Amino acid sequence: MIVKIQPSKVSGDVHAPASKSSMQRACAAALVRKGESIISNPGKSNDDIAGLNVIQTLGAEVEDMEDGSLKIISDGVDPVSSSVNNGEAGLGIRMFTPIVALSKREMLINGEGSLLTRPMDFFDEVMPQLDVKIKSNNGKLPIKLKGPLQPKDIEIDGSLSSQFLTGLLLAYAAVDAKNVTIKVNNLKSKPYVDLTLSVMESFLLKVPENRNYEEFYFDETPVMPTEDVVDYTVEGDWSGSAFLLVLGAIAGNVKVEGLDIASTQADKKILEALENCNAEITIRDNEIEVSNSHSEIMGFEFDATDCPDLFPPLAALAANCKGTTKITGVHRLTHKESNRALSIQEELVKMNIKVELDDNLMLIEGTKKIKAATVHSHHDHRIAMMCALLALKADNESTIDVAEAINKSYPDFYKHLQQLGASVNFQ
After folding, report:
1. Within a domain: residue 224?
2. Checking DSSP bridges between strand 423-426 and strand 3-6, what pairing results, if any?
3. How many domains is the chain built from?
4. 199 within domain boundaries
5. pLDDT band at 286 (very low <50, low <70, confident <90, very high)
6. Of these four, 6, 228, 272, 410, which has the most CB atoms within 10 Å of its CB?
7. Any residues with CB less than 8 A from the CB of 154 and at least 6 apart, and which?
8. Which domain holds residue 124?
9. Would you tell me the crossing angle of helices 381-391 and 340-350 to the nearest 10 degrees?
10. What was the pLDDT predicted at 227?
11. What pTM was estimated for this model as a whole?
């Protein structure tokens, strides 16, 4: 799909999309919890749909409710097929693989798109320690494994992603692990671990003791079975909403409803960046308003090591700031839907924005002369949304190729831009 965007001023209210981080964790928790769960405000992105497909393959029943919520009934992991496909969901493949390994059945785990090139050798190293037989494609998908996984004291590397830990925590909780510890070295994205633990608690699963993010200890206390129905509401998504908030800072006035200021989502730190660049922010109950009506936004410094998904909206923000912005955490961008550091640089340069990559640092020089261009999403949802924001500030009409990449996380993104008054046309 090709999208053409004209320079536009924006103004208005929009409701935050559902968080796929929250939604996918809720799907996994509803699967491993035996009983009935209700998921309210469910997400509808491609990654969310992939998560629902996975839990149904693993034995859960999913029913659409009249009010838009989902009812999930599960008796634990009991696959109805020997093959699981995670689509292009990075969280999904890392989180569900240990859960799939709870089954005694030999299972084939696969994915699509960029997921096929992402490193999965973590599982080659860890799964055999948990009595799981595994064979990968030289550290990549597809993966064939056979459990059942046996919780044991293990030590893992958390430097690539916290999502591997999330899967292990849920798998250990599913079998009521007792007196075992997962030790983690160099854990990244700690706020997402907080989200995992919060979801586990909401679904009445056994929650380990968090020892300064270095050890997660499951004690000897057994989890008592309950017939209570869990009712979980998926949070508004700070990752997708970051683009809307940045939009307000660079192109008008935007109010975003449905964001929890107390959320554990890592990308809530976008507020810190907006404050640092001198944007005008107003926080009310269930609503955040960002405007550029009175002040000039300035270059800023920001550490995105624990929130790497913020790089694309931060890049769009930095391009519109006066001066140079310095963003740390580039090393976290290699294994995304694209090599995101190079994708950001390539597309910004097309639009007359200078970007320098210096090891773990990205430097972006702001400009008042953003040039219209034909840009490409690199099949990366966040790159597509970044390009859309820049196009709204360009000197003429810009074109985004493979613009449908947004469906991975935020399928209503262009619709919401139109709702705010942006000129967005589809071909």
Report:
1. no
2. antiparallel
3. 2
4. yes
5. confident
6. 410
7. 126, 129, 130, 168, 182, 183
8. 20-216
9. 20
10. 82
11. 0.92
pLDDT tens digits, one per residue of 410-424: 999 999 999 999 999
Q: Where do we find the tokens 């955040």?
A: 288
355 neighbors 345 (Cβ within 8 angstroms): yes
What's the rounded mean pLDDT across residues 95-101?
98
Contact residues for 152 (Cβ-Cβ < 8 A; gap 6+): 129, 130, 131, 180
Catalytic residues: 309
Cβ proximity of 86 and 48 under 8 Å? no
Q: Which of 216, 250, 272 finishes a domain?
A: 216
Residue 293: per-residue pLDDT: 75
Q: What per-residue confidence (pLDDT) applies to 377?
A: 97
Q: Under a CB-based contact definition with an 8 Å cutoff, are residues 167 and 95 in contact? A: yes
Q: Could you tell me if residue 330 is inside a domain?
A: yes
Residue 341's pLDDT is: 95
Residue 103 is part of a domain; what is its CATH number? 3.65.10.10
Q: What is the pLDDT of residues 34-46, one digit of tens each?
A: 999 999 999 999 9
Judge contact between 387 and 374, C-beta under 8 A. no
Of 157-161, 194-198, 367-371, least confident by mean pLDDT is 157-161
Task: Indicate the residue among 216, 244, 271 that finishes a domain.
Answer: 216
Find out whether 290 and 316 touch, Cβ atoms under 8 Å.
no
Cβ partners under 8 Å of residue 284, min gap 6: none
Do 177 and 57 reside in the same domain of the chain?
Answer: yes
- Could you read off the pLDDT of 64-88 as tens digits, one per residue? 999 999 999 999 999 999 999 999 9
Q: For 218-251, what is each residue's pLDDT tens digit?
A: 999 998 878 899 999 999 999 999 999 999 999 9
Q: How far apart are the first and last CA of the chain?
A: 6
Residues 124 and 242 in one domain: no
d(CA 413, CA 46): 13
